[in-house]
Design goal:
The chain has 231 residues and is mostly helical. 72% of the residues lie in helices and 3% in strands. Strands 1-2 form a two-stranded antiparallel sheet. Helix 4 runs parallel beside helix 10 and helix 7 runs antiparallel to helix 8.
Length: 231
């Protein structure tokens, strides 16, 4: 029963699942990242960038509504953090995912209001920062193969690290402490999200390589990565 509850969270932590101190701390941390990202975006992008930010957020919002079966009656869905980070760049990617999470929390009760800071950190911040994993692994390589490999690893790691962060946050809350705490939540979350991460990575690579071939200038993250797209 506990395992089903943990997996049902699917990284969107509902209200009441975090202790107040943890929830407040994650709000402060996430707000700091959002302010930092907003300043970076203002300095780097024109006002016309708002349109692609809205379109990208809407796409990921719709994509997250589609669930795919994993095992033992569980399912997963695209998170999209790495996709947005490479498409828009890390800072705009964080903001875009935050918009998605805000719409989900306000209109679909997918993730709580008091836990919004934690959800932003787990999916928007970690997803956005996965851009730097891609940057590190590509190492300014001009090859598409290196780019594809780097995106796959970054997308997989973003899901696993997001699941780990979520598991730690709920594991220290009174809701789960008496049932085993992080000794239960961490392996439970990681076991399934390591599989979900492979699917996430595959979808992310497929989408980005398709955009890369058809409209490479749409990938704002490529400019920051300094990756040369081979035609």
């Amino acid at each position: 029963m506990l395992l089903k509850v943990i997996l049902a969270i699917d990284m969107h932590i509902p209200d009441g699942f975090l202790e107040p101190v943890t929830a407040a701390t994650m709000f402060v941390v996430s707000i700091a990242f959002l302010v930092w990202s907003w300043k970076k975006v203002q300095a780097s992008y024109s006002r016309s960038f708002t349109a692609i930010l809205a379109i990208s957020s809407a796409f990921v919002f719709a994509a997250q509504m589609i669930n795919f079966p994993i095992a033992f009656g569980t399912s997963g869905h695209l998170v999209g953090g790495t996709f947005l980070a490479v498409l828009l760049g890390p800072y705009a990617g964080i903001l875009s995912m935050t918009i998605v999470l805000l719409m989900q929390a306000l209109f679909f009760a997918d993730g709580g209001i008091t836990t919004f800071g934690a959800n932003v950190f787990n999916m928007a911040v970690i997803g956005g920062l996965s851009f730097f994993i891609v940057k590190f692994l590509t190492h300014n390589s001009p090859t598409n193969r290196r780019f594809t490999f780097s995106v796959f690893i970054a997308a997989w790691l973003s899901v696993v690290l997001s699941a780990l962060s979520c598991a730690l946050q709920i594991g220290i809350s009174p809701v789960f402490v008496q049932a085993g705490g992080i000794a239960v939540t961490v392996p439970s979350m990681l076991m399934y999200h390591m599989i979900i991460g492979v699917i996430e990575a595959t979808i992310t690579v497929t989408l980005l390589t398709a955009i890369q071939r058809l409209q490479p200038t749409a990938l704002g993250g490529l400019t920051l990565l300094k990756v040369k797209v081979k035609q």
